Amino acid sequence: MKFKGLLTAVIVLAALGGGVYWSDRKKAAEEKEPAKDAPPKVLTIAEDQFKSISLKKAAGDTTVVQKSAAGKWEIAQPKPLAADQDSVSSLVSTLSSLTSDRLIEESTSDLASYGLASPALEVVVTKKDGKTEDLLIGDDTPTGGSTFVKLKSDPRIFSVSSGVKSSLDKTSKDLRDKRLLTFDSDKLTRVELVAKGPAIEFGKNNQNEWQIIKPKPLRADGSQVEELVRKLKDAKMDTDADPAKSVSAFATGTRVAVVTVADSSGTQTLEIRRDKDKNYYAKSSVLDTVYKTAADIGDGLDKDLDSFRNKKLFDFGFNDPTKLTVNKTTYEKSGDKWMSAGKEMDSGSVQAVIDKLRDLSSTKYLETGAGEPVMELAVTSGDGKRNEKVTIMKQGATFIAKRENEPSVYELDAKAVEELQKTASGVKAAPPADTKKK
Fold first, then answer.
1. CA-CA-CA-CA torsion for 233, 234, 235, 238, nearest 10 degrees?
2. Is residue 10 part of a domain?
3. pLDDT exceeds cutoff 80 at 17
4. Within-domain flag for 130
5. Is residue 31 very low, low, confident or very high in pLDDT (cuts 50, 70, 90)?
6. Would 114 disulfide with which of 52, 83, 148, 349, CB 3.0-4.6 Å?
7. What's the pLDDT score for residue 407?
8. In this predicted structure, what is the pLDDT of residue 245?
9. What is the DSSP annotation of 36-103?
10. CATH code of 150's domain
11. Residue 29 vs residue 347, higher pLDDT
12. The pLDDT of residue 9 is above 60
């Protein structure tokens, strides 16, 4: 009897387990299915299956974008042009999963009532397998906010958000790459700027930091050079400007700057000129003609050498120094403590000196200068890899400074030097341990 009861229990348990299994399986299948009242899909194409997209307007203008052998989008019609990859990707994203607002008609022979007999826009997607999907975009719905669409091969008529129409209603002007320079900023190795004064050349040092190479080796303000690179990277053509007028204005305009950039693929050159009305025009080595451009690119390039020089006396920035010497007194970091001659120093007072050194900047650059030294400063940072030494001198009524192994002379604000001297003289030993506990 016991065996019979056990067998019955096993059978019941198996039945329950099977019921749970099929229940879960049915639930998972239902979750994958769209809701009964969900608006139907108009078009579904995997993004990696797009080969080309044709945008044909009722007016007769046709723009065709296609993928190159390298997998990049390019404009094939009305004439070969480089395409803006993000703009074309937006097209692809819209078409790959196009959902309707609602189904309007299951079938009708009266396409003209919906503006679909002669659609305002016809979008043809050619897939990798050679098959096509032909989307017709008609009139806006009477209530507004939606547009009638249908696939050429599907009798159904749908309404979709008007935003779909605006996202697909593009021309080659909208989809072309509008950049004046196409360099890879991550692989940029050199920038040369000819604007105010002699040519300035920037290059990277062993720490991947921008330095001035020409007209002579100088420390560069990295943030200013990066801002220059950003402006060059973001510089775009104005495709709405009259091409003939742009060519004429460039020919008679005043040269503002010429820039040459070099990355792993080679060099590119951009020349900017300005007309009498302060409009800016650009001629790029990667483009076929002259284009009008925004004023901020011209203003961003119209700079002299001093605009890019590093005004800071020390380069350690926000790195925490591990060693500091003020005149003949040395402070070294040991864990979270500052030590000097075997004694623990008050960390706050040492940090106050470091903060002053971090902010110490020049007010003017001098070709030459000399005087009586008033402060000898040395800072070690970057895990001991960066060692900087600066001598501050009194020259007449002003203070000047020189960095070790650098010809530049920096004029300093007298008040800043006096505050630094006062802060340095205020460094003190840490209070005894028992005093700290109190």
1. 140
2. no
3. no
4. yes
5. very low
6. 148
7. 87
8. 96
9. TTSPPEEEE--GGGEEEEEEEETTS-EEEEEE-TTS-EEEEESS-EEB-HHHHHHHHHHHHEEE-SEE
10. 2.60.40
11. 347
12. no
CA-based nearest residue to 320, from 359, 356, 355? 355
Tokens of 319: 């790195």
Within this chain, do residues 47 and 162 fall inside the same structural domain, yes or no?
yes
pLDDT of residue 432: 83
* 423 vs 69: CA distance, rounded Å: 65
Cis peptide before 215 (omega within 30 of 0): yes
- State which residues form the domain around 266: 185-308
* Cβ count near 379 (within 10 Å): 24
Q: How many CB atoms lie within 10 A of CB 418?
A: 11
Residue 400 has pLDDT above 50, yes or no: yes
The β-bridge partners of 64 are: 54, 77
**Amino acid making up residue 16:** L
pLDDT on residue 434: 64
Same domain, 205 and 293: yes
Three-state secondary-structure class, residue 360: coil
Q: Which residue has the tokens 């390298």?
A: 70
Dist. CA 71–CA 49, nearest whole Å? 11
